[in-house]
Specification:
alpha+beta, 102 residues, elongated, three-stranded antiparallel sheet, 58% helix
């Protein structure tokens, strides 16, 4: 039986590492919920995110760090708080890269 390739995902090096990190970060249901929350609440502070989840602030902060390190979100310090939003540039890259598979 012969199979035709359905798609192409020619990615190596740093881009491959970046894509894997973004997939891994979203693999957590909690981090996925945080991304969903930030879709409708851009520029919110950590306390807003903590209030939306049944988790301690330290746990939420740890998840935010993973999302920041993988490129899903970015944070801006405003006084004693950090305001988070989705990193549109990185999310656009992620989407464009996934289109190679389709």
């Amino acid at each position: 039986m012969d199979y035709e390739p359905c798609c192409n995902l020619s990615i190596e090096g740093e881009e491959k590492t970046r894509l894997i990190a973004m997939f891994k970060a979203l693999g957590s249901p909690v981090r996925f919920e945080i991304v969903q929350f930030l879709v409708t609440h851009p520029g919110c502070i950590t306390g807003d995110i903590v209030g939306a989840l049944p988790l301690a602030q330290a746990t939420v902060s740890q998840h935010l760090k993973v999302l920041r390190d993988s490129g899903w979100i970015e944070g801006e310090i405003e006084g004693p708080a950090v305001c988070y939003q989705l990193n549109k540039k990185n999310i656009t890259w992620f989407g464009e890269t996934l289109k190679q598979i389709l």
